[in-house]
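Chapter review: from sequence to fold.
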Amino acid sequence: MTKPHVFVTMADILNLECDAWLLPTDSSVSIRPHWQDVYKDLVQLAEASCGEEFRTGQLFAQAIENWHASVPKPVLTAVPNDNLWGPGVVAERLEAFVVAALAALPEFPTRRRYPLLAMPFFGTAGGGAGRHLGAALRDILTVISDLSMQHSVDIVLVLRDRAAFSLAQKLRREDWMDQRHRRALPPELHDKAVELGRKAKAGHLVPFLGAGVSVSAGAPTWGQLLERLQNGIELEDVSDVDFNRLGPLDHASVLEQLYVDQYGSRQLFEKAVVEAVDLPRYGLAPALLATMPSAGAITLNYDRLFEMACSDARRPRTVLPEDAPTVGGAWLLKLHGSVSRPETIVLTRDDYLGFHSTRAALSALVKAHLMTHHLLFVGFGLADDHFHEIVHDVRRALPGQKPAGQQMGTVLSLFHEPHQRLVWSGRLEILPMAGKAPYGMTDKEREYAIQAAGRDMEIFLDTTAAYASDDHSYLLAPAYTEGLSRHEVELRAQLLYLARHRRTSATAEVWGVIDDALSSLGFDPQESYEQLWPPHE
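The C-alpha coordinate string follows.
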Protein backbone atom coordinates (compact mmCIF):
# COMPACT_ATOMS: atom_id res chain seq x y z
CA MET A 1 0.00 0.00 0.00
CA THR A 2 2.47 2.61 -1.15
CA LYS A 3 0.12 4.97 -3.01
CA PRO A 4 -0.64 8.39 -1.50
CA HIS A 5 -3.88 8.45 0.46
CA VAL A 6 -6.62 10.86 1.55
CA PHE A 7 -7.76 10.42 5.16
CA VAL A 8 -10.95 11.81 6.70
CA THR A 9 -11.38 12.38 10.42
CA MET A 10 -13.13 14.44 13.07
CA ALA A 11 -10.46 16.34 14.98
CA ASP A 12 -9.00 19.72 15.86
CA ILE A 13 -6.33 20.46 13.29
CA LEU A 14 -4.31 22.34 15.93
CA ASN A 15 -4.03 19.14 17.98
CA LEU A 16 -3.12 16.85 15.07
CA GLU A 17 0.49 15.88 14.38
CA CYS A 18 1.24 16.54 10.71
CA ASP A 19 3.87 18.25 8.54
CA ALA A 20 1.87 21.27 7.41
CA TRP A 21 -1.72 22.49 7.60
CA LEU A 22 -3.95 24.85 5.67
CA LEU A 23 -4.71 28.09 7.51
CA PRO A 24 -7.67 29.86 5.86
CA THR A 25 -7.32 33.61 5.39
CA ASP A 26 -7.82 36.31 2.74
CA SER A 27 -5.74 38.91 0.95
CA SER A 28 -5.82 41.15 4.02
CA VAL A 29 -4.39 38.28 6.11
CA SER A 30 -7.32 38.20 8.52
CA ILE A 31 -7.20 35.15 10.79
CA ARG A 32 -10.08 33.91 12.90
CA PRO A 33 -9.61 33.87 16.70
CA HIS A 34 -9.78 30.07 16.90
CA TRP A 35 -6.43 29.76 15.18
CA GLN A 36 -4.85 32.48 17.31
CA ASP A 37 -5.81 30.98 20.68
CA VAL A 38 -3.01 28.39 20.56
CA TYR A 39 -0.29 30.42 18.80
CA LYS A 40 -0.17 33.95 20.15
CA ASP A 41 2.43 35.09 17.59
CA LEU A 42 0.48 33.68 14.63
CA VAL A 43 -0.82 36.99 13.28
CA GLN A 44 2.54 38.71 13.63
CA LEU A 45 4.39 35.95 11.75
CA ALA A 46 1.65 35.73 9.12
CA GLU A 47 1.80 39.46 8.44
CA ALA A 48 5.56 39.31 8.09
CA SER A 49 5.39 36.34 5.68
CA CYS A 50 2.90 37.74 3.16
CA GLY A 51 4.20 39.94 0.38
CA GLU A 52 2.50 41.95 -2.34
CA GLU A 53 1.75 38.93 -4.53
CA PHE A 54 -0.40 37.33 -1.83
CA ARG A 55 -2.11 40.57 -0.86
CA THR A 56 -3.02 41.39 -4.46
CA GLY A 57 -4.37 37.93 -5.22
CA GLN A 58 -1.55 36.84 -7.54
CA LEU A 59 -0.47 34.19 -5.04
CA PHE A 60 -3.07 31.98 -3.32
CA ALA A 61 -0.90 30.28 -0.70
CA GLN A 62 2.07 31.28 1.44
CA ALA A 63 3.79 29.22 4.14
CA ILE A 64 4.45 31.15 7.34
CA GLU A 65 8.17 31.81 7.67
CA ASN A 66 10.32 31.57 10.81
CA TRP A 67 7.80 29.14 12.31
CA HIS A 68 8.48 27.04 15.40
CA ALA A 69 10.68 24.13 14.31
CA SER A 70 8.90 21.37 16.27
CA VAL A 71 5.37 22.46 15.37
CA PRO A 72 3.41 21.64 12.16
CA LYS A 73 3.83 24.49 9.65
CA PRO A 74 0.78 26.65 8.81
CA VAL A 75 0.28 27.57 5.16
CA LEU A 76 -1.86 30.67 4.62
CA THR A 77 -4.38 29.96 1.88
CA ALA A 78 -6.78 32.55 0.47
CA VAL A 79 -10.40 31.39 0.54
CA PRO A 80 -12.64 32.35 -2.40
CA ASN A 81 -15.31 34.96 -1.77
CA ASP A 82 -19.03 34.57 -2.54
CA ASN A 83 -18.65 35.60 -6.16
CA LEU A 84 -15.85 33.19 -6.95
CA TRP A 85 -16.96 29.93 -5.33
CA GLY A 86 -16.80 26.91 -7.63
CA PRO A 87 -14.88 23.67 -8.21
CA GLY A 88 -12.22 25.27 -10.40
CA VAL A 89 -11.53 28.09 -7.97
CA VAL A 90 -11.30 25.71 -5.03
CA ALA A 91 -9.00 23.39 -6.98
CA GLU A 92 -6.47 26.10 -7.81
CA ARG A 93 -6.34 27.27 -4.20
CA LEU A 94 -5.93 23.79 -2.78
CA GLU A 95 -3.19 23.02 -5.28
CA ALA A 96 -1.48 26.26 -4.29
CA PHE A 97 -1.64 25.08 -0.67
CA VAL A 98 -0.05 21.71 -1.51
CA VAL A 99 2.71 23.27 -3.63
CA ALA A 100 3.52 25.93 -1.01
CA ALA A 101 3.53 23.35 1.79
CA LEU A 102 5.91 21.01 -0.02
CA ALA A 103 8.23 23.88 -0.94
CA ALA A 104 8.42 24.91 2.71
CA LEU A 105 9.17 21.45 4.10
CA PRO A 106 12.62 19.87 4.38
CA GLU A 107 13.51 17.23 1.83
CA PHE A 108 12.82 14.45 4.34
CA PRO A 109 10.31 16.11 6.67
CA THR A 110 8.95 13.27 8.78
CA ARG A 111 9.01 9.63 9.75
CA ARG A 112 6.29 8.98 7.13
CA ARG A 113 6.51 7.48 3.63
CA TYR A 114 4.76 10.61 2.31
CA PRO A 115 4.45 14.06 3.90
CA LEU A 116 1.14 14.50 5.73
CA LEU A 117 -0.78 17.69 4.96
CA ALA A 118 -3.91 18.58 6.95
CA MET A 119 -6.74 20.85 5.88
CA PRO A 120 -10.07 21.93 7.38
CA PHE A 121 -13.39 22.10 5.51
CA PHE A 122 -12.02 24.82 3.25
CA GLY A 123 -14.16 27.85 2.41
CA THR A 124 -17.13 27.05 4.64
CA ALA A 125 -16.70 29.73 7.30
CA GLY A 126 -17.56 32.77 5.21
CA GLY A 127 -15.51 31.60 2.24
CA GLY A 128 -18.28 31.37 -0.33
CA ALA A 129 -19.66 27.86 0.11
CA GLY A 130 -22.61 29.34 1.99
CA ARG A 131 -25.56 26.96 2.01
CA HIS A 132 -23.97 24.57 -0.48
CA LEU A 133 -21.80 22.58 1.89
CA GLY A 134 -22.71 19.21 0.41
CA ALA A 135 -21.60 20.24 -3.07
CA ALA A 136 -18.48 21.87 -1.63
CA LEU A 137 -17.56 18.68 0.22
CA ARG A 138 -17.92 16.61 -2.95
CA ASP A 139 -15.66 19.03 -4.82
CA ILE A 140 -13.02 19.08 -2.10
CA LEU A 141 -12.84 15.27 -1.83
CA THR A 142 -12.43 14.97 -5.60
CA VAL A 143 -9.77 17.69 -5.76
CA ILE A 144 -7.62 16.49 -2.86
CA SER A 145 -7.77 12.90 -4.13
CA ASP A 146 -6.26 14.08 -7.42
CA LEU A 147 -3.73 16.37 -5.70
CA SER A 148 -2.61 13.58 -3.38
CA MET A 149 -1.66 11.37 -6.32
CA GLN A 150 -0.25 14.19 -8.43
CA HIS A 151 2.09 15.53 -5.74
CA SER A 152 2.78 12.30 -3.81
CA VAL A 153 1.43 13.49 -0.47
CA ASP A 154 -0.96 12.14 2.12
CA ILE A 155 -3.79 14.57 2.86
CA VAL A 156 -6.11 14.43 5.86
CA LEU A 157 -9.41 16.31 5.67
CA VAL A 158 -10.09 17.42 9.24
CA LEU A 159 -13.77 18.04 9.95
CA ARG A 160 -15.50 19.54 12.98
CA ASP A 161 -19.14 19.15 11.91
CA ARG A 162 -20.74 15.72 12.28
CA ALA A 163 -22.96 16.28 9.23
CA ALA A 164 -19.89 16.93 7.07
CA PHE A 165 -18.09 13.91 8.52
CA SER A 166 -21.02 11.55 7.98
CA LEU A 167 -21.52 12.78 4.40
CA ALA A 168 -17.81 12.49 3.59
CA GLN A 169 -17.74 8.89 4.81
CA LYS A 170 -20.88 8.07 2.84
CA LEU A 171 -19.38 9.56 -0.34
CA ARG A 172 -16.20 7.57 0.13
CA ARG A 173 -18.08 4.31 0.66
CA GLU A 174 -20.01 4.94 -2.55
CA ASP A 175 -16.81 5.73 -4.41
CA TRP A 176 -15.16 2.50 -3.25
CA MET A 177 -18.23 0.52 -4.24
CA ASP A 178 -18.49 2.06 -7.71
CA GLN A 179 -14.77 2.19 -8.43
CA ARG A 180 -13.05 -0.75 -6.79
CA HIS A 181 -9.70 0.29 -8.24
CA ARG A 182 -9.76 3.37 -6.00
CA ARG A 183 -9.71 1.31 -2.82
CA ALA A 184 -6.52 1.83 -0.88
CA LEU A 185 -6.39 -1.68 0.58
CA PRO A 186 -5.94 -5.10 -1.01
CA PRO A 187 -9.32 -6.88 -1.35
CA GLU A 188 -8.82 -9.18 1.67
CA LEU A 189 -7.87 -6.30 3.99
CA HIS A 190 -10.64 -4.07 2.62
CA ASP A 191 -13.18 -6.79 3.41
CA LYS A 192 -11.81 -7.13 6.94
CA ALA A 193 -12.03 -3.36 7.42
CA VAL A 194 -15.67 -3.45 6.30
CA GLU A 195 -16.40 -6.30 8.70
CA LEU A 196 -14.78 -4.51 11.66
CA GLY A 197 -16.48 -1.23 10.74
CA ARG A 198 -19.86 -2.93 10.85
CA LYS A 199 -19.04 -4.47 14.23
CA ALA A 200 -18.21 -0.98 15.49
CA LYS A 201 -21.45 0.45 14.07
CA ALA A 202 -23.39 -2.28 15.90
CA GLY A 203 -21.66 -1.41 19.18
CA HIS A 204 -19.71 -4.69 19.38
CA LEU A 205 -16.16 -3.39 18.91
CA VAL A 206 -13.87 -2.25 21.73
CA PRO A 207 -10.48 -0.72 20.79
CA PHE A 208 -7.46 -1.92 22.79
CA LEU A 209 -4.59 0.53 22.27
CA GLY A 210 -0.89 -0.23 22.63
CA ALA A 211 2.21 1.94 22.42
CA GLY A 212 2.31 1.83 18.61
CA VAL A 213 -0.80 4.03 18.44
CA SER A 214 1.17 6.96 19.84
CA VAL A 215 4.42 6.48 17.91
CA SER A 216 3.26 8.57 14.92
CA ALA A 217 2.92 11.54 17.26
CA GLY A 218 6.52 11.13 18.42
CA ALA A 219 5.96 8.94 21.46
CA PRO A 220 8.79 6.55 22.33
CA THR A 221 8.57 2.79 22.07
CA TRP A 222 9.18 0.84 25.28
CA GLY A 223 12.86 0.46 24.45
CA GLN A 224 13.21 4.14 23.57
CA LEU A 225 11.50 5.12 26.82
CA LEU A 226 14.02 3.12 28.83
CA GLU A 227 16.88 4.73 26.89
CA ARG A 228 15.57 8.21 27.67
CA LEU A 229 15.20 7.36 31.34
CA GLN A 230 18.74 6.03 31.33
CA ASN A 231 20.00 9.35 29.95
CA GLY A 232 18.64 11.14 33.02
CA ILE A 233 21.01 9.58 35.53
CA GLU A 234 24.74 9.22 36.15
CA LEU A 235 26.01 5.78 35.22
CA GLU A 236 29.68 5.95 36.29
CA ASP A 237 29.05 4.09 39.52
CA VAL A 238 27.04 1.35 37.84
CA SER A 239 29.14 0.77 34.74
CA ASP A 240 29.07 -2.96 35.43
CA VAL A 241 25.29 -3.07 34.92
CA ASP A 242 24.56 -4.61 31.52
CA PHE A 243 21.11 -3.27 30.72
CA ASN A 244 21.02 -5.30 27.52
CA ARG A 245 20.92 -8.50 29.57
CA LEU A 246 17.94 -7.34 31.62
CA GLY A 247 14.32 -7.85 30.70
CA PRO A 248 12.26 -4.65 30.27
CA LEU A 249 10.65 -4.86 33.73
CA ASP A 250 13.97 -5.40 35.49
CA HIS A 251 15.59 -2.71 33.32
CA ALA A 252 12.93 -0.26 34.50
CA SER A 253 13.31 -1.43 38.11
CA VAL A 254 17.06 -0.79 38.09
CA LEU A 255 16.55 2.66 36.59
CA GLU A 256 13.94 3.50 39.21
CA GLN A 257 16.32 2.52 42.01
CA LEU A 258 19.14 4.58 40.47
CA TYR A 259 16.85 7.63 40.37
CA VAL A 260 16.00 7.07 44.04
CA ASP A 261 19.67 6.61 44.97
CA GLN A 262 20.87 9.68 43.08
CA TYR A 263 17.96 12.05 43.70
CA GLY A 264 16.51 10.71 46.94
CA SER A 265 12.99 10.31 45.61
CA ARG A 266 10.92 8.34 43.09
CA GLN A 267 9.18 11.53 41.98
CA LEU A 268 11.93 12.50 39.54
CA PHE A 269 11.69 9.05 37.99
CA GLU A 270 7.94 9.57 37.53
CA LYS A 271 8.56 13.07 36.18
CA ALA A 272 11.04 11.74 33.62
CA VAL A 273 8.46 9.18 32.42
CA VAL A 274 5.82 11.89 32.08
CA GLU A 275 8.14 14.19 30.13
CA ALA A 276 8.94 11.40 27.69
CA VAL A 277 5.35 10.39 26.88
CA ASP A 278 3.13 13.42 27.53
CA LEU A 279 2.79 14.84 24.02
CA PRO A 280 0.83 17.92 22.84
CA ARG A 281 -0.57 16.47 19.59
CA TYR A 282 -2.00 13.10 18.59
CA GLY A 283 -1.29 11.26 15.36
CA LEU A 284 -3.68 9.80 12.80
CA ALA A 285 -4.26 6.47 14.56
CA PRO A 286 -5.85 7.95 17.74
CA ALA A 287 -7.81 10.45 15.64
CA LEU A 288 -9.27 7.70 13.42
CA LEU A 289 -10.04 5.37 16.33
CA ALA A 290 -11.73 8.22 18.19
CA THR A 291 -14.36 8.58 15.45
CA MET A 292 -15.51 4.96 15.77
CA PRO A 293 -18.60 4.36 17.90
CA SER A 294 -17.78 2.26 20.98
CA ALA A 295 -19.00 2.37 24.54
CA GLY A 296 -15.59 1.46 25.91
CA ALA A 297 -11.91 1.47 25.04
CA ILE A 298 -8.84 0.07 26.80
CA THR A 299 -5.22 1.17 26.68
CA LEU A 300 -1.88 0.30 28.21
CA ASN A 301 -0.53 3.75 27.27
CA TYR A 302 0.23 6.43 29.84
CA ASP A 303 -0.27 9.42 27.51
CA ARG A 304 -3.46 11.46 27.05
CA LEU A 305 -3.57 11.39 23.24
CA PHE A 306 -6.60 9.15 22.78
CA GLU A 307 -8.81 10.98 25.26
CA MET A 308 -7.78 14.27 23.62
CA ALA A 309 -8.69 12.88 20.20
CA CYS A 310 -12.04 11.61 21.52
CA SER A 311 -12.89 15.04 22.88
CA ASP A 312 -12.02 16.68 19.54
CA ALA A 313 -14.11 14.06 17.71
CA ARG A 314 -17.16 15.04 19.82
CA ARG A 315 -17.10 11.63 21.51
CA PRO A 316 -15.68 12.45 24.98
CA ARG A 317 -14.82 9.61 27.35
CA THR A 318 -14.70 9.15 31.09
CA VAL A 319 -11.17 8.04 32.01
CA LEU A 320 -11.07 5.10 34.42
CA PRO A 321 -10.02 4.83 37.18
CA GLU A 322 -9.31 8.59 37.40
CA ASP A 323 -12.85 9.89 36.89
CA ALA A 324 -16.13 8.86 38.44
CA PRO A 325 -17.93 6.67 35.89
CA THR A 326 -21.21 7.93 34.45
CA VAL A 327 -24.11 5.63 33.66
CA GLY A 328 -24.39 5.16 29.91
CA GLY A 329 -21.32 7.26 29.12
CA ALA A 330 -18.38 6.19 26.98
CA TRP A 331 -15.25 5.28 28.93
CA LEU A 332 -11.53 4.70 28.50
CA LEU A 333 -9.80 2.28 30.84
CA LYS A 334 -6.12 3.19 31.34
CA LEU A 335 -4.96 -0.16 32.59
CA HIS A 336 -1.35 0.83 33.31
CA GLY A 337 -1.87 4.33 34.68
CA SER A 338 -1.72 7.85 33.29
CA VAL A 339 0.63 10.82 33.08
CA SER A 340 -2.07 12.86 34.81
CA ARG A 341 -1.39 10.73 37.91
CA PRO A 342 2.26 9.62 37.65
CA GLU A 343 2.07 7.52 40.80
CA THR A 344 -0.33 5.13 39.02
CA ILE A 345 2.05 4.27 36.16
CA VAL A 346 2.87 0.56 35.84
CA LEU A 347 6.43 0.25 34.52
CA THR A 348 8.70 -1.72 36.84
CA ARG A 349 8.49 -5.33 38.03
CA ASP A 350 7.22 -4.20 41.45
CA ASP A 351 4.50 -2.21 39.70
CA TYR A 352 3.39 -5.32 37.80
CA LEU A 353 3.48 -7.53 40.89
CA GLY A 354 1.42 -4.99 42.81
CA PHE A 355 -1.10 -4.68 40.03
CA HIS A 356 -3.30 -7.58 41.14
CA SER A 357 -3.76 -6.26 44.67
CA THR A 358 -4.80 -2.75 43.60
CA ARG A 359 -6.50 -3.08 40.22
CA ALA A 360 -8.30 -6.40 40.19
CA ALA A 361 -11.56 -4.69 39.24
CA LEU A 362 -9.91 -3.13 36.19
CA SER A 363 -8.67 -6.50 34.97
CA ALA A 364 -12.15 -7.90 35.54
CA LEU A 365 -13.58 -5.22 33.25
CA VAL A 366 -11.15 -6.23 30.48
CA LYS A 367 -12.02 -9.90 30.93
CA ALA A 368 -15.74 -9.13 30.74
CA HIS A 369 -15.28 -7.34 27.43
CA LEU A 370 -13.15 -10.15 26.04
CA MET A 371 -16.11 -12.42 26.76
CA THR A 372 -18.88 -10.19 25.43
CA HIS A 373 -17.35 -7.93 22.77
CA HIS A 374 -14.87 -8.06 19.91
CA LEU A 375 -11.62 -6.33 20.85
CA LEU A 376 -9.54 -4.55 18.22
CA PHE A 377 -5.88 -4.51 19.23
CA VAL A 378 -3.94 -1.65 17.64
CA GLY A 379 -0.26 -0.83 18.17
CA PHE A 380 0.02 -3.78 20.50
CA GLY A 381 2.96 -6.19 20.58
CA LEU A 382 1.13 -9.08 22.28
CA ALA A 383 4.21 -9.72 24.43
CA ASP A 384 2.82 -8.09 27.60
CA ASP A 385 2.74 -10.63 30.45
CA HIS A 386 -0.30 -9.00 32.02
CA PHE A 387 -2.22 -9.35 28.78
CA HIS A 388 -1.31 -13.04 28.56
CA GLU A 389 -2.69 -13.52 32.08
CA ILE A 390 -5.98 -11.82 31.19
CA VAL A 391 -6.53 -13.93 28.07
CA HIS A 392 -5.58 -17.07 30.00
CA ASP A 393 -8.14 -16.32 32.73
CA VAL A 394 -10.85 -15.62 30.17
CA ARG A 395 -10.22 -18.89 28.35
CA ARG A 396 -10.48 -20.79 31.63
CA ALA A 397 -13.69 -19.00 32.55
CA LEU A 398 -15.44 -19.66 29.23
CA PRO A 399 -17.52 -22.84 29.19
CA GLY A 400 -16.08 -25.11 26.53
CA GLN A 401 -14.80 -23.97 23.18
CA LYS A 402 -16.07 -21.01 21.22
CA PRO A 403 -17.76 -21.80 17.90
CA ALA A 404 -15.37 -22.30 14.98
CA GLY A 405 -14.19 -19.02 13.53
CA GLN A 406 -15.36 -16.95 16.51
CA GLN A 407 -12.46 -15.02 18.00
CA MET A 408 -12.15 -12.85 21.10
CA GLY A 409 -10.58 -10.10 19.03
CA THR A 410 -8.58 -8.95 16.04
CA VAL A 411 -4.95 -7.84 16.15
CA LEU A 412 -3.67 -5.34 13.60
CA SER A 413 -0.08 -6.47 13.31
CA LEU A 414 2.58 -4.56 11.41
CA PHE A 415 4.15 -7.69 9.90
CA HIS A 416 3.41 -11.31 9.16
CA GLU A 417 4.83 -13.32 12.04
CA PRO A 418 3.79 -17.00 11.84
CA HIS A 419 4.85 -17.80 15.40
CA GLN A 420 2.36 -15.26 16.77
CA ARG A 421 -0.41 -16.92 14.77
CA LEU A 422 0.46 -20.20 16.47
CA VAL A 423 0.53 -18.65 19.95
CA TRP A 424 -2.86 -16.99 19.55
CA SER A 425 -4.60 -19.50 17.29
CA GLY A 426 -8.27 -19.91 18.17
CA ARG A 427 -8.26 -16.81 20.38
CA LEU A 428 -7.23 -13.85 18.27
CA GLU A 429 -7.23 -13.20 14.54
CA ILE A 430 -4.00 -11.54 13.47
CA LEU A 431 -4.10 -9.24 10.43
CA PRO A 432 -0.61 -8.27 9.20
CA MET A 433 -0.41 -4.95 7.38
CA ALA A 434 2.82 -5.82 5.54
CA GLY A 435 4.96 -8.84 4.65
CA LYS A 436 7.63 -10.59 6.68
CA ALA A 437 9.02 -8.99 9.82
CA PRO A 438 12.13 -6.87 9.13
CA TYR A 439 14.70 -9.28 10.54
CA GLY A 440 18.20 -9.21 9.11
CA MET A 441 17.85 -5.61 7.90
CA THR A 442 20.02 -2.64 8.68
CA ASP A 443 18.68 -0.25 11.30
CA LYS A 444 17.71 2.25 8.59
CA GLU A 445 15.94 -0.38 6.49
CA ARG A 446 14.12 -1.71 9.52
CA GLU A 447 13.01 1.77 10.57
CA TYR A 448 11.70 2.44 7.06
CA ALA A 449 9.82 -0.88 7.00
CA ILE A 450 8.17 -0.14 10.36
CA GLN A 451 7.18 3.36 9.22
CA ALA A 452 5.64 2.01 6.03
CA ALA A 453 3.71 -0.71 7.87
CA GLY A 454 2.51 1.83 10.47
CA ARG A 455 1.15 4.03 7.69
CA ASP A 456 -0.60 1.00 6.15
CA MET A 457 -2.27 0.44 9.51
CA GLU A 458 -3.51 4.04 9.48
CA ILE A 459 -5.04 3.43 6.04
CA PHE A 460 -6.73 0.30 7.39
CA LEU A 461 -8.16 2.29 10.32
CA ASP A 462 -9.31 5.04 7.96
CA THR A 463 -11.24 2.47 5.91
CA THR A 464 -12.68 0.87 9.04
CA ALA A 465 -13.81 4.27 10.32
CA ALA A 466 -15.58 4.99 7.03
CA TYR A 467 -17.68 1.84 7.42
CA ALA A 468 -18.18 2.41 11.16
CA SER A 469 -19.86 5.79 10.65
CA ASP A 470 -23.27 5.51 12.32
CA ASP A 471 -24.46 9.06 11.68
CA HIS A 472 -26.74 10.39 8.92
CA SER A 473 -27.16 13.97 10.10
CA TYR A 474 -26.28 15.29 6.64
CA LEU A 475 -29.71 14.17 5.37
CA LEU A 476 -31.68 17.02 7.01
CA ALA A 477 -28.82 19.42 7.74
CA PRO A 478 -29.93 22.74 6.18
CA ALA A 479 -26.89 23.39 3.99
CA TYR A 480 -26.20 19.90 2.61
CA THR A 481 -28.93 19.37 0.02
CA GLU A 482 -26.57 19.60 -2.96
CA GLY A 483 -24.48 16.75 -1.63
CA LEU A 484 -27.39 14.30 -1.79
CA SER A 485 -28.40 11.80 -4.44
CA ARG A 486 -31.76 12.13 -6.21
CA HIS A 487 -33.30 9.44 -4.00
CA GLU A 488 -31.97 11.12 -0.85
CA VAL A 489 -33.42 14.47 -1.97
CA GLU A 490 -36.84 12.82 -2.33
CA LEU A 491 -36.55 11.19 1.09
CA ARG A 492 -35.43 14.49 2.58
CA ALA A 493 -38.53 16.19 1.18
CA GLN A 494 -40.80 13.57 2.71
CA LEU A 495 -39.11 13.86 6.10
CA LEU A 496 -39.30 17.67 6.04
CA TYR A 497 -43.00 17.44 5.24
CA LEU A 498 -43.43 15.10 8.20
CA ALA A 499 -41.40 17.44 10.42
CA ARG A 500 -43.88 20.27 9.81
CA HIS A 501 -46.91 18.07 10.35
CA ARG A 502 -49.37 19.25 13.01
CA ARG A 503 -48.87 17.60 16.42
CA THR A 504 -51.72 16.54 18.68
CA SER A 505 -51.71 15.73 22.38
CA ALA A 506 -53.12 12.29 21.64
CA THR A 507 -49.97 11.31 19.77
CA ALA A 508 -47.44 13.24 21.88
CA GLU A 509 -45.43 10.17 22.91
CA VAL A 510 -45.03 8.97 19.35
CA TRP A 511 -44.09 12.44 18.17
CA GLY A 512 -41.37 12.53 20.78
CA VAL A 513 -39.80 9.44 19.20
CA ILE A 514 -40.20 10.91 15.69
CA ASP A 515 -38.71 14.26 16.71
CA ASP A 516 -35.67 12.51 18.24
CA ALA A 517 -35.17 10.63 14.98
CA LEU A 518 -35.50 13.84 12.94
CA SER A 519 -32.98 15.56 15.20
CA SER A 520 -30.50 12.70 14.72
CA LEU A 521 -30.88 13.20 10.98
CA GLY A 522 -29.87 16.85 11.29
CA PHE A 523 -33.26 18.60 11.38
CA ASP A 524 -33.15 22.10 12.83
CA PRO A 525 -36.63 23.42 13.73
CA GLN A 526 -35.32 27.00 13.69
CA GLU A 527 -34.36 26.79 10.02
CA SER A 528 -36.62 27.79 7.15
CA TYR A 529 -36.05 24.98 4.69
CA GLU A 530 -36.39 25.98 1.06
CA GLN A 531 -37.27 22.52 -0.22
CA LEU A 532 -40.35 21.90 1.89
CA TRP A 533 -43.05 20.27 -0.16
CA PRO A 534 -45.48 17.37 0.21
CA PRO A 535 -44.09 13.98 -0.75
CA HIS A 536 -44.72 12.80 -4.28
CA GLU A 537 -47.84 10.74 -4.84
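Two observations follow directly from the output. Confidence is low (pLDDT under 50) at residues 532-537. The radius of gyration is 25 Å.
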